[in-house]
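An instance as discussed:

___
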Amino acid sequence: MRKDSATHRVAVAITPQAPIFELAVPCEIFGTDRPELADPWYHLDVCSTEPDTTVAAGFVAHGAASMVELARADTVIVPACANVHTRPPEKLVEAVRTAHEAGSRIAGICSGAFVLAAAGILDGRRSTAHWMHAQELARLYPRVHVDPTVLYCEDGGVFTSAGTAAGIDLCLELVRRDHGTAITNALARRLVVPPHRDGGQAQYMRLPAVTPDDTSLAPLLDWARARLDQPLSVDDLAQHGHLSRRTLARRFHDTLGLAPLRWLRHERIRHAQHLLETTTMTVDHIAARSGLGTAANLRRHFTDHVGVSPHGYRRTFRTTRS
């Protein structure tokens, strides 16, 4: 990483109507002097493509530095953009590309990944973004390897994070790499956040109901969803749908993109999520009600799909308390 001076220089990019939270996170972490933790701490520049840029909620960035300063920084952070469907400002894209070519560490928070992708520095790299934008990122930039399940990731000195609060996780990781675990833990205590969160973004992505384009399959899916607590097999589905096993498999593949048993497992985990959020049932009872059999089987499949254990998921999302 480039070091132009004793103080590590961090540049945070501002774009018009940028979400205020994602912008505030790096400003708080890197812009507040903390000599009792490390001296020197960081030097922060807030950089804008235009003078007095207005961001979300009417805040105006008076006296922001230029893209020239951003291109010279040791670390460049691009918070979320206002609209992922709009091409980011070319001045910003070019400045980020220049900084990367000069050896700067580059980080994108949430949809800030779209700026990094537009600059070409995510080509061939693993990256992430808010799970709501991950599919669009992959569509617009097919050379980017998008992983929508993680809170943040790094590939070749380029960092990206999921949305909103995941920006805190990413910034703490940057501090950890600069100053070590002890200082990062002390900083996290001051921010009243965990220094590291278990699991990934998948735990915040409620599994969608997989519905077919072919509506003739819908009655069979509804019938199966009403019987998830029963030991359904491919033969059961085929028999109720008046189809052969081979035809059933083809119809599922053509309309859902899933094999029948994979669809069943997907629906069972969705139902387990609902029960964990809204009931006080034990994990054993939820495993039985969702058709996953034993608590051990539920834990294995749930953790594989959601990224955290059923207990961890319930602790975060349960809405009904006894």
Notes: The domain at 8-202 is CATH 3.40.50.880 (Rossmann fold). DSSP finds 14 helices and ten strands in the chain. The chain has a mean pLDDT of 87. The chain has two domains: 8-202, 215-317.
